[in-house]
Amino acid sequence: MPNSRRAALALVMVLQTACASASAPSDGRSAESPERPAPKVLTIAILREPAGLHEDLTGVVGGGGVRQLYNIAQDLLVRQDDTGAYVPRLAQERISAERGTWRVFPDGSMETVWKLRAGITWHDGTPFTAEDLLFSLAVYKDPQIPSSVGRPLALMEAASAPDPLTLSIRWSGTYVRADEAPGLIPMPRHLLEEKYRSDKLNFTAGPWFTTEFVGLGPYRLVGWERGVSMEFSRFDDYYAGRAHIDTVVARFLGDQNAMLAGLLARAVDVVLPEGVDLSAALELRRRWAGTGNRVLFELGNLRHLEIQHRPEYEEPSFSTTSRTARQALSQTIDRQTLADAIGDGSLLPADSWFRPNQDLRGQVEASIPQFPYDPARAQQLFAEAGWIRGEDGTLVHRQSGERFEMLIYGAQMGSVEREQNIIADAWKAAGVQPRLYLIPAALAADREHRSKLPGMGLNGAGFDRLTTDYFKSRSIPSDANRWVGSNRGGYTNPRVDAILDRLESTIDPRERIVAHRELLQEQLGDLALIPLYWGASPVLALDDVSGIRDNSATNSTWNVAAWDKRDKR
């Protein structure tokens, strides 16, 4: 069935559900059982249908609400909460050097020991043990099984289960994110080991990752109608306590308009990211004013200006390669005004890659260099960098005689054109003549083209990238490496390289905080990039749904077991 017809069918079904709900008895009790309250059914809408319910093995695209489904039926050793901190779930605690469960040896090799909670069972009632994790790790490390885990697998050289609640892993090298439990999404050994042994080539395509999925989450999969919906029922033996809602239905509507129609008909309770774009969500918020219905957000990547740092591609001279000129350009931008204009007051301005509600922010905040909006200070800095106003008000360099004509570029997507225009207006007021450039679709994947662009470009990146390889010297694209690398602006700073190397080899939390502080002062203090605001993906919820956190730094279903739905009848 074509996707459009499936979406239409799904919408008809949710509208029928709404009509059925409207005709139900109004006294809050079921017509069939007057002494028992009606079951709580939560209907969520997502844009795409998942290929399966395993993040690392079924090749699922993360967008369109797919990544939020995993939390409904599966749980992990640790999971990120709304601040971005990893908190223990199936594990008793996070591994740590302090408790002796994470040891780094003089040669750089490691040992990690995970202690599991007792009393956890799979959805079929079978106990969950460390043997399940041993089996899962063996599958991930099998070269015949495609996996998205990546580098950590190569470093895990041996694993054992000394007892049913202990998993020990020996690593050949240091991996500082080992406490995030990479490559350890559990699979039920009792159900899958024989299937894996007998048919490896078809293992990941089996129904045990789709219609026959058995997991450890607060809800268990009870139905999957291809192209239409999935149904989850509360798992009463969930180790963290029974969820509040009886049934969760996930519908694949495939179209933003279908999602909005379902919400307005109250046939859909929640729309998960990334189903409705920001502009549509903000318009709905205006329409919903005073109703109790809510538009919430998942915080996304840091929107920032990437900068051309290489003199051979710089235009004009003495602009982006001058730290003083970079600071002047930064201080012409009113980040709060930019965030408000793009997000109608719902987005947060940024001063660094640490989110306002991030768990580590309080420990590093004093080290964040501040470059507030200050047009007068910007003019002083331009003068210090050799830029003075010409007769027509445009900045001209004393030495080269060049006019300050600066390129602002970006991909043809989202709010890029609005961002360009707002920044351009700020720069014009300061005497800079901006040139706006939208990268043509035909060049969108051309790494060399993007890497050679002068000026500054609008981009988005997450915390993990910005604090690992994003600005490393060895990540600079060039002809020698076929223009592959994240450091497209060619930023080079040996001190930054050294700090990033320390962050890649240091597991002690106190030492890592020291390194993060130094990185902020050195990399951000040098204006390797210019932070703008935090992107966000809308979460739409009706007024009778509770438990969803606003401005969550992770995906919104991280606490889905705590969600509830009030009976309004």
List the helices and strands and how they pair.
Blueprint: H1 3-22, E1 41-46, H2 66-73, E2 78-80, E3 86-88, E4 102-104, E5 110-115, H3 130-141, H4 151-155, E6 156-163, E7 166-171, H5 189-198, E8 219-225, E9 229-234, E10 247-252, H6 256-264, E11 270-271, H7 278-287, E12 294-307, H8 323-330, H9 335-343, E13 348-349, H10 361-364, H11 375-384, E14 387-389, E15 395-397, E16 405-411, H12 416-430, E17 433-439, H13 447-452, E18 456-461, H14 463-466, H15 494-503, H16 509-524, E19 529-541, E20 545-546, E21 564-565
Parallel strand pairs: 1-10, 1-11, 16-17, 16-18
Antiparallel strand pairs: 2-3, 4-5, 5-7, 6-7, 8-9, 9-10, 11-19, 12-18, 12-19, 13-19, 14-15, 20-21
Helix pairs in contact: 1-6, 3-5, 8-11, 15-16
Brief overview, please?
This protein has 569 residues and is of the alpha+beta class. It folds into three domains: 1-74 and 217-293 and 542-569, D-Maltodextrin-Binding Protein, domain 2 (3-Layer(aba) Sandwich), CATH 3.40.190.10; 77-193, Dipeptide-binding Protein, Domain 1 (Dipeptide-binding Protein, domain 1), CATH 3.90.76; 300-535, Dipeptide-binding Protein, Domain 3 (Dipeptide-binding Protein, domain 3), CATH 3.10.105.10. It is built from 16 helices and 21 strands.
